[in-house]
């Protein structure tokens, strides 16, 4: 028998339980009564320090804070510009801190670094905020966020910027390495800029940087089964929303000015249109699915190309939307339901392991997982999260997905490979390696009359590579593959 005594249950007294309960209730009450943020700069500051302190994704942090705010559409737009602008311009802003502050950016406390990013961004890169307003509001933010002891420093360093650079952005002329100079001035990692210079030359590489440093346009795709582009444009005009058709895309619309929250636009809830960039629309036109066919979208979520295929097929036939992450297929289902499409089926699992499709498909789309380097204007922090090594590793997965999808097709079937990347190792190299492994396959240009044909250029042959600074759309690579006949 053990010599230890049994453990006693320590039940607190009723008084102590009551005090604990009251403390919890008081804390919950204080949290629930905290007023929603009504200042766009305060919201931007809250989101930025969460990004810097917790490595939060920029879009997730911004959406979370916007959901708790009471900002009108104009202030929501300002807060969005400030957050995404500061994240995109992080390297340039840090380099500015390094030159004007007593300590480099890497050694600044995260709250102060976020505050300086906000101030410098407004001074250097926003053409609608006067310098005096940028300085004064930054000093006020310091005072209201327990940084009052640093308000004098913030005021001094921002005014020093105005004396040094005026209303222009820094040129960083002290950086002598050409790649590092452009990468710092445009705010990108060196390795990305180096690849663009190698592919495009210096002038176009700089144009591409400038494009990715601007906020992206919003493109829509009209649900052709239920309405026409002309009708949607007429609805927008009646509602005071400035929009125009996208040349070359039969169902594409470009919003020309800030239209507020997308879900509040006319006929969104009725499923008469959806948000989809023009480049992504081209992918489905290149696939060219026909009514009654058996089609598989191998990497489908969130479902933009899947639903577009269903619309082009007049919702007749069978489309299987596959995705490795089953939870992401919920977005496919919700999009299909809103657009009133019934031909779409969802399948969770690795598309490299779906033998039930072998030899059964008329068309297969492999919109492969990629680095996303064609969407850097749309995903503000991606340039800092993606690495050159990761982009190379993705090529292995992309090749394996292509190999598996090729087995699914009937002898006359069509296989389309696409990425939202402009990085050669994920695109041209993957296709070349696939053709080396499968000499019975070849690349094929879009057929006559296909919208994708108009976007072919001399230097891409039968493969479409869309550069954002040239096309005004997201960066994309796409190619149509068929068996040799």
Topology diagram in text:
Blueprint (H helix, E strand, L loop, with lengths): L13 H19 L7 H15 L3 H10 L5 H16 L1 H11 L9 H16 L5 H14 L6 H15 L12 H9 L3 H11 L1 H11 L5 E5 L6 H10 L4 E3 L6 E4 L17 E3 L2 H10 L6 E4 L6 H9 L5 E6 L5 H10 L5 E5 L12 E7 L14 H4 L2 H21 E11 L8 H10 L3 E4 L18 E4 L1 H4 L4 E8 L2
Parallel strand pairs: 5-6, 5-8, 6-7, 8-9
Antiparallel strand pairs: 1-3, 1-4, 2-3, 9-12, 10-12, 11-12
Helix pairs in contact: 2-3, 2-4, 2-6, 3-4, 4-6, 5-6, 6-7, 6-8, 7-8, 9-10, 10-11, 13-14, 17-18
How would you summarize this macromolecular structure in one to three sentences?
The chain is of the alpha/beta class. The protein has 19 helices and twelve strands.
Descriptive notes:
The protein is of the alpha/beta class and 485 residues long. Helices cover 46% and strands 13% of the residues. It has 19 helices and 12 strands. It has helices spanning 14-32, 40-54, 58-67, 73-88, 90-100, 110-125, 131-144, 151-165, 178-186, 190-200, 202-212, 229-238, 278-287, 304-312, 329-338, 382-385, 388-408, 428-437, 468-471; strands at 218-222, 243-245, 252-255, 273-275, 294-297, 318-323, 344-348, 361-367, 409-419, 441-444, 463-466, 476-483. The strands form 2 sheets. Strands 5, 6, 7, 8, 9, 10, 11 and 12 form an 8-stranded mixed sheet that branches. Strands 2-3-1-4 form a 4-stranded antiparallel sheet, with helices on one face. Helix 2 (40-54) crosses helix 3 (58-67). The chain is globular. It starts with 13 loop residues before the first helix and ends with a strand.
């Amino acid at each position: 028998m053990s010599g230890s005594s049994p453990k006693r249950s320590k039940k607190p007294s009723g008084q102590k339980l009551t005090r604990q309960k009251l403390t919890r209730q008081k804390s919950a009450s204080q949290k629930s009564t905290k007023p929603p943020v009504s200042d766009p700069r305060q919201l931007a500051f809250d989101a930025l320090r969460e990004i810097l302190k917790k490595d939060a994704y920029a879009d997730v942090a911004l959406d979370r804070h916007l959901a708790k705010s009471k900002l009108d559409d104009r202030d929501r737009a300002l807060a969005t510009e400030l957050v995404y602008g500061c994240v995109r311009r992080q390297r340039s802003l840090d380099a500015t801190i390094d030159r004007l502050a007593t300590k480099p950016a890497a050694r600044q406390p995260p709250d102060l670094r976020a505050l300086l990013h906000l101030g410098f961004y407004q001074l250097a890169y926003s053409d609608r905020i006067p310098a005096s307003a940028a300085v004064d509001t930054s000093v006020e933010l310091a005072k209201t966020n327990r940084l009052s002891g640093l308000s004098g420093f913030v005021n001094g360093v921002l005014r020093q910027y105005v004396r040094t650079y005026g209303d222009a952005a820094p040129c960083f002329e002290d950086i002598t390495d050409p790649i590092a100079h452009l990468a710092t001035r445009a705010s990108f990692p060196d390795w990305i800029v180096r690849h663009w210079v190698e592919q495009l030359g210096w002038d176009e590489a700089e144009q591409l940087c400038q494009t990715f440093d601007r906020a992206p346009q919003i493109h829509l795709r009209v649900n052709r089964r239920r309405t026409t582009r002309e009708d949607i444009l007429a609805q927008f005009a009646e509602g005071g929303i400035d929009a125009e058709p996208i040349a070359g895309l039969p169902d594409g619309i470009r919003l020309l000015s800030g239209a507020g929250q997308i879900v509040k636009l006319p006929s969104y809830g009725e499923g008469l249109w959806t948000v989809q960039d023009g480049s992504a629309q081209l992918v489905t036109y290149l696939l060219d699915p026909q009514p009654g066919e058996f089609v598989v979208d191998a990497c489908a979520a969130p479902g933009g190309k899947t639903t577009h295929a269903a619309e082009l097929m007049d919702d007749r036939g069978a489309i299987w939307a596959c995705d490795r992450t089953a939870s992401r297929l919920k977005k496919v289902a919700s999009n299909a339901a809103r657009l009133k499409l019934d031909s779409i089926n969802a399948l969770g699992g690795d598309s490299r392991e779906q033998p039930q499709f072998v030899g059964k498909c008329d068309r297969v789309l492999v919109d492969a997982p990629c680095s996303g380097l064609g969407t850097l204007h749309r995903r503000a922090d991606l340039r800092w999260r993606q690495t050159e090594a990761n982009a190379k590793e993705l090529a292995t997965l992309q090749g394996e997905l292509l190999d598996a999808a090729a087995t699914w097709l009937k002898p006359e079937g069509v296989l389309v490979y696409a990425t939202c990347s402009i990085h050669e190792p994920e695109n041209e190299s993957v296709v070349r390696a696939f053709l080396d492994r499968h000499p019975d396959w070849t690349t094929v240009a879009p057929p006559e009359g296909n919208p994708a044909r108009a976007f072919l250029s001399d230097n891409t042959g039968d493969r479409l590579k869309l550069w954002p600074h040239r096309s005004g759309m997201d960066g994309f690579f796409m190619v149509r593959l068929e068996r040799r006949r």
